[in-house]
Amino acid sequence: MVDRDLDRGGAVRKVVPRSVGSISGAAVALSAVILVGAFAAPAAADPVPGIQVATASALIPAGSAAGTTVVASCPSGTRLIGGGVWTGKADPGDPAVPTNGLRVKGTYPSDASGAPLTDGTATPDFWSAAGNFGGRSEPGDQVTSFALCAAKKNQHRVVSVASVNAPTAAHQTALVTATCPAGTTIVGGGALGTPVGSPAFKPIGSYPSDAEGNMLPDGAVNPASWTAVGGNGGSGDPTAITTAFAVCAKPQGVLSTITRVDAAGPRSGNSFAVITASCAGTRLLGGGVNFDNPAGPLEGGEHLRGSYPSDAAGDPVADGTRDPAAWSAVVSTGSEPSPNLTVHVFAICAANRAA
């Protein structure tokens, strides 16, 4: 769970990560696989099958720049529609705040080995999450992958993928946008920064957008594009590649809308905050996050620690959760302050047209 103190505005929450429900951690190499065992599908009498969450976790080896990738799979009787990632302390009794070197390196649809899917792949089955340490490492931190799974009504799902060889220089950002095929809309999306072991390069945004990469406003309907933002810190990497993944499906009578929350992020050095967007009275399909500095460029040390399904208070949901209510993101600063950092969190919410 997550402990926090609300600021006066109620949107930004300081956090001390502890655990993610009943998730267990296990050390794996970058290419290793942890799959979640199937749990019971909803009973046939259930009139609203809803969304189920499956999770998998792995410890990140301290001192390893290579990082860890963990794969979650949906239970029998459901289909993958999207996913998320969270990084933090694996020990629920450890009150320490994780080092600011801990960050997300990817959250994306994959095969069973954790390899990212290619453009046009149909019916994705797995969701991967990757994390590593930057300048500092510590034992006891983990990365958790969340697979969001729906009943088998919608067989048509396809992944759109777009990549760019950027940003390659220090203190730069780059964005790339993947757009769904005609007749489909976004149900989920992700981002990946490769090479995963790069010390300064990481994805810092993964969110629903228009075809040019602009963030969608609150209340936007049936989004069709997904944008990933890559950022380089104090040192450049000429091999850096930022990749965006859009998971697309036919609407089939469901209207999806965006709930967007814009809030002040952590602004002092070595700090972090949780921001949450909720689906009030509707069902969560997925979500995303982006952060920026409206007054100018980012300082460079800001990074993403998580973008995941949560409860309304921002706590990551446990394995087997039905119909999560909200989407949350954890954003951290490096050793330097970021006095104008602003975080944007997006929840993709779906309600039946007839309802």
Care to describe what's here?
- The protein has 355 residues and is an all-beta fold.
- The protein has strands at residues 2-6, 13-17, 51-59, 68-73, 78-89, 102-110, 126-133, 141-151, 157-164, 173-179, 185-194, 201-209, 225-232, 241-249, 254-264, 272-278, 283-292, 303-310, 326-332, 342-352.
- It has a single domain, classed as Jelly Rolls, CATH 2.60.120.690.
- The strands form 5 sheets. A 6-stranded antiparallel β-sheet has the order 3-8-5-18-19-16, with no helix packed on it. A 6-stranded antiparallel β-sheet has the order 4-7-6-11-14-9, with no helix packed on it.
- A hairpin with a 6-residue loop joins strand 1 (2-6) and strand 2 (13-17).
Q: How would you summarize the topology of this molecule?
A:
Elements (H helix, E strand, L loop, with lengths): L1 E5 L6 E5 L33 E9 L8 E6 L4 E12 L12 E9 L15 E8 L7 E11 L5 E8 L8 E7 L5 E10 L6 E9 L15 E8 L8 E9 L4 E11 L7 E7 L4 E10 L10 E8 L15 E7 L9 E11 L3
Antiparallel strand pairs: 1-2, 3-8, 4-7, 5-8, 5-18, 6-7, 6-11, 9-14, 10-13, 11-14, 12-13, 15-20, 16-19, 17-20, 18-19
